[in-house]
Amino acid sequence: MRKLTRILTGVFIITTIFYACSGNKSTEQKENMKEQAKNNFSKFKVKHADWVKTANIYEVNIRQYTKEGTFKAFEAHLPRLKEMGVDILWLMPIFPVGEKNRKGGMGSAYSVKDYVAVNPDYGTMEDFKNLVAKVHENGMHIILDWVANHTAWDHPWTQEHPDWYTKDSTGNFMPPKGTDWSDVIDLNYDNLELRIEMINSLKFWVKEANIDGFRCDVAGMVPTDFWNTARKELDSIKPVFMLAEAEQADLHYKAFDMTYGWNFHHLMNEVAQGKKTVKAFDAYFKKDSTVYPADAIRMYFTSNHDENTWNGTVFERMGDAYPAMAVLTFTIPGMPLIYSGQEAGLNKRLAFFEKDLIDWEGGKDFKAFYARLIKLKKEHPALWNGAEGGSMQRIATSADDKIFAFIRKKGNDELIAVFNFSPETQKVKLTTKEGVSFKDIFTEKVFSNEQELKAWDYKVFVNN
Questions:
Q1: pTM for this structure?
Q2: How far apart are CA 83 and CA 263, in angstroms?
């Protein structure tokens, strides 16, 4: 009966997604590519919730956040995060973890065994609902990490609906093609029933727990038309916020508010390591503006769970350039991300498949640093997200291969940001207007066109 009820509930979805399952997906994607090539963003239909325009996002690793690793234990940190100014809490997957072919002792949170239950290690469903309520009481929003591309090997669907999975040449379940993700198996989105059930599972968390949206794991490996339908169904319950772990521009048209700025993240690492100069940033922003609609929000970050675990801490990858890169993520067009523990100077790679507690006391305290940046973004419309924010104009300098300077402007609100992305002190001249009173938010010094910046130094001037 439960299966029949859920299928009947989702029957009205069928018409929307039928053609995608019949092979028309490639045609739609080709049309989207043509529109991009013409710099025609008329297909952009996503409407951001009003609270998104000034928001930042904070990734929560429940397993590693506290000794207990539970929802209740994490609640104690909400006042601190509220004081810091955090807006959106993104929780890494909270679902039961598969046991078959599990990696490590605790397994990957991205090996989902049940989409409508919580990991008992974290607490109960009631505990989670209480956490959501307290997040909202503190004026913040909460989104769940959703793994739509694959499940654990022992998900009940493997027995109940084996046809919902991709099979190899011998007819057996298989990990996503081209990956080494041996602990999960690929879902087949050519199956209409799977799509309906997945959308119903997404809707469950909005209806039952009142969450505010989803961060969607490897979203580009799931058909875009599925996400288009899912967003429409979710918005019919309440306006949601959707983040895609992908960079495909067409994901922004109907499904997602925000996509990852992966390419820019890699550029930041390379500039910090001396492998590229800031001219790479110029090329990036020039291209980015032609690929994405003006209201598409890009997410920029110095770290996240993947980068921290597999590629190194911010101190390993960026060294002394880390604070400047963090300031950059708060001042360029886009939404900045803070990963669990960065405000406490997290300086170790957290284990992915085992318990590995964040050290909240042993690192440099970056709480005030991030609080100041968050306050800056909220108070200045020029830095707001998407089309709500201001323009970005590069300022030419006498050392454009080392100094990255720009002005953000919306109406009467203007900011000038200047970065020395080199390991030597730089004395430079900036070709921007004189006679305007700007003060650096970090030093209170008045702006002038002649600047001296120490190695990896940064200055953000605001008009008063």
A1: 0.93
A2: 31
Q: Are residues 50 and 141 in the same domain?
A: yes
One-letter amino acid for residue 390 of the chain:
G
The CATH number covering residue 173 comes to 3.20.20.80
Residues 301-351 pLDDT 10s: 999 999 999 999 999 999 999 999 999 999 999 999 999 999 999 999 999
Cα–Cα dist 59/91, whole Å: 6
Q: Where are the alpha helices (DSSP H) in 146-243?
A: 157-160, 192-209, 224-235
End position of a domain, from candidates 390, 421, 453:
390
Structure confidence at residue 10 as a pLDDT band (50, 70, 90): low
pLDDT digits (tens, 9 = 90+) for 188-239: 999 999 999 999 999 999 999 999 999 999 999 999 999 999 999 999 999 9
Are 264 and 323 within one domain? yes
Most distant pair of Cα atoms in the chain: their distance: 74
Q: What angle do CA 238, 244, 245 make, to 5 degrees?
A: 150
Q: Residue 455 maps to which CATH number?
A: 2.60.40.1180
Quick one: 406 and 340 in the same domain? no
Q: How far is CA 210 from CA 10, 52, 136, 245, 340, in A?
A: 20, 17, 10, 22, 23
Q: At a CB cut-off of 8 Å and minimum separation 6, what does 89 contact? A: 58, 60, 81, 135, 140, 141, 142, 143
Q: Extract the runs of DSSP E, i.e. beta strands, from 26-113.
A: 57-60, 88-91
Task: DSSP letter for 222, please.
Answer: S
Residue where a domain stops, chosen among 356, 390, 424: 390
Query: CA-to-CA distance for 360 and 340, rounded, in angstroms?
Result: 10
- 218 and 358 co-located in one domain: yes
Give 286's contacts (C-beta < 8 A, 6+ positions apart): none
| Residue 34 and residue 121 in one domain | yes
In a shared domain, residues 400 and 275: no
Strand segments, DSSP code E, in 121-250 are 141-146, 150-152, 184-186, 213-216, 241-244
| Residue 24 CB partners (closer than 8 Å, separation 6+) | none
Q: Do 261 and 298 share a domain, yes or no? A: yes
Residue-range definition of the domain harbouring residue 459: 394-463
Q: How many domains does the chain have?
A: 2
Banded model confidence at residue 36, pLDDT cuts 50, 70, 90: very low
Confidence of residue 44 (pLDDT cuts 50, 70, 90): confident
